[in-house]
Design brief:
The complex is a heterodimer. Chain A is α+β, with helices and mostly antiparallel strands. Chain A has helices spanning 4-18, 102-114, 124-132, 134-147; strands at residues 24-29, 32-41, 52-58, 69-72. Chain A has one domain (4-147): Ubiquitin Conjugating Enzyme (Roll). Chain A has a 4-stranded antiparallel sheet, with helices on one face. Chain B is built from 14 helices and 5 strands. In chain B, a hairpin with a 5-residue loop joins β1 (37-40) and β2. In chain B, α4 packs across α7 (167-184) and α10 packs parallel to α11. Classes of the chains: A alpha+beta, B mainly alpha. At the A-B interface, α1, β1, β2, β3 and α2 of A face α2, α12, α13 and α14 of B.
């Protein structure tokens, strides 16, 4: 059954294929357009460089009026990512706008890797290392980068 | 994936301006072409009426700039509606033309073919003293392509020319002639062979067309007035009562049920369900769209179902699929910070 949500998701997919932003890719599951797999490549000149971080996006029929649920499937060490992979990102919560599409969500997450916000930490250890011991923070992030290749 | 989904990226990359035009005529929310465009009086952002009203029922701010926005700030934008309509009509044709032969588009070739004909014709007319008598006009018509299938009602033609099939051709020719002679800028006045009125030489042929079609000199304005008088009457009768906002908290369940029944909306379920149904219905002010409410209800009541569908099993499978692709994904990362992502402060 085609609903506005499904049509919008197919449109998002078409856009992502025909005009992909750099360093991200994503596609719906072949048998369920409401679940998407995505990969974000770690931005250059950040500790996340060379990482291939996998995410799962889960939509329901309230999209795009409500944001999807986004979760990292890869292990992450980032001030704004919880241990279970969930993100603390304003545009996926109170700053969500129905004008965002999948490409916008993924590019936002990509820029979050580049530019963490240690003031609202989801991972307290990562946040304090980011503030106080950048060298150790980078080392821990590099570990997750390597594990993201597996 | 789906060929019926039209996207600005359908336009070849070298026609960036067309991509942009296509993008601008779309709703930022549903990404479809704007349907009943409504513009914010404050910030000017434009959306489909239904899309923006649905948003505003949740949050009273502009989906684009997050400025304060309420339904009373929305204004219809008929110009945009007309633009969307005509763009949609020409889209396929233009796209076909551009993708088939982007170097020399067909319309330009047509223009080249026409120009020599215009010049010979206007030079003949100069020799005749710039007075297209009925005889001259019918000569021209006889010379024009008679194979055209389009024709005006024979009665209006027969009065002057005696030959009907070519009357449409004259429109075509005269448009061209108009362009040809206006380039020369000679504002000579001539009298219309049909009604005798003094008309500019450059517009005599289009004026003559109107005369031949049996219209008076100002047909458009009259039609306009007539349509303005009749349209509201005809649509007003079938219009539903304007949706009103309800203070759900002040209504008892039975009162809300009564309101829904009066509006012709299904009045089943508990108060919460009826409230959700009414607030979804509010932006939809047309009886035909009531069936969309049923579709919405059958899908919107399922979020839990879709969530269970997309639970651990799907997520696990998704993860394993990504992991399979991980080897292909392992390559140097390109510089990848986008120019303008949505703000990403936490």
């Amino acid at each position: 059954m085609s609903t506005p949500t499904r049509r919008r998701l197919m449109r998002d997919f078409k856009r992502l294929q025909s005009d992909p932003p750099g360093g991200i890719s994503g596609a719906p599951c072949p048998d369920n357009i409401m679940v998407w797999n995505a990969v974000i490549f770690g931005p250059a000149d950040t500790p996340f460089e060379d990482g291939t971080f996998k995410l799962v996006l889960t939509f329901d029929e309230t999209y795009p009026n409500k944001p999807p649920t986004v979760r990292f499937a890869s292990k992450m060490f980032h001030p704004n990512v919880y241990a279970n992979g969930e993100l603390c990102l304003d545009i996926l919560q109170n700053r969500w706008s129905p004008t965002y599409d999948v490409a916008a969500i993924l590019t936002s997450i990509q820029s979050l890797l580049h530019d963490p916000n240690p003031n609202s930490p989801a991972n307290a250890e990562a946040a304090s290392l980011y503030r106080e011991n950048r060298k150790e923070y980078v080392r821990r992030v590099r570990e997750t980068v390597e594990s993201s290749w597996e | 994936m789906d060929t019926d989904i039209e996207d600005p990226t359908d336009w070849p990359a070298e026609f960036a301006h067309l991509r942009e035009t296509d993008q601008l005529l779309r709703c930022p929310i549903c990404k479809e072409y704007l349907d009943t465009a409504m513009a914010s009086a404050n910030c000017g952002h434009t959306f489909c009426s239904l899309c923006v009203r649905r948003c505003l029922s949740q949050k009273t701010q502009c989906p684009m700039c997050h400025d304060q926005l309420t339904e009373s700030d929305l204004q219809p934008s008929r110009l945009i509606d007309s633009l969307v309509k005509s763009f949609k009509q020409g889209r396929r044709q233009l796209l076909d033309t551009l993708t088939r032969n982007p170097q020399s588009p067909a319309p330009a070739q047509n223009g080249h073919r026409k120009r020599p004909r215009i010049q010979t014709r206007s030079s003949t007319r100069t020799a005749e003293g710039m007075l297209p008598t009925p005889q001259a006009t019918s000569d021209r018509l006889a010379a024009a392509d008679l194979s055209s299938d389009n024709e005006l009602p024979a009665a209006t033609d027969g009065e002057y020319l005696g030959s009907s099939p070519s009357s449409v051709q004259i429109i075509d020719d005269d448009d061209a002639t108009l362009r040809g002679s206006s380039r020369r800028a000679k504002p000579t006045m001539v009298s219309c062979p049909s009604c005798g009125a003094k008309v500019r030489e450059s517009t005599i042929n289009s004026h003559l067309n109107r005369c031949l079609a049996g219209k008076t000199t100002e047909p458009d304005s009259k039609n306009f007035l007539r349509s303005r008088r009749t349209v509201p009457l005809s649509t007003g009768a079938s219009r539903l009562p304007k949706p009103t906002k309800l203070a759900y908290k002040l209504l008892t369940e039975s009162k809300l049920r009564k309101v829904l029944k009066e509006l012709g909306i299904r009045a089943t379920g508990d108060k919460h369900q009826m409230q959700a149904r009414h607030s979804e219905w509010s932006p939809v002010s047309d009886r035909q769209l009531l069936k969309r409410l049923d579709v919405w209800e059958s899908t919107a009541s399922k979020p839990d179902a879709t969530k269970t569908l997309a639970t651990q099993r799907d997520v696990d499978r998704a993860c394993s699929q990504i992991c399979q692709h991980a080897s292909t994904a392992r390559r140097p990362v390109v510089a990848s910070i986008p120019e303008s992502p949505p703000s990403s402060q936490v």
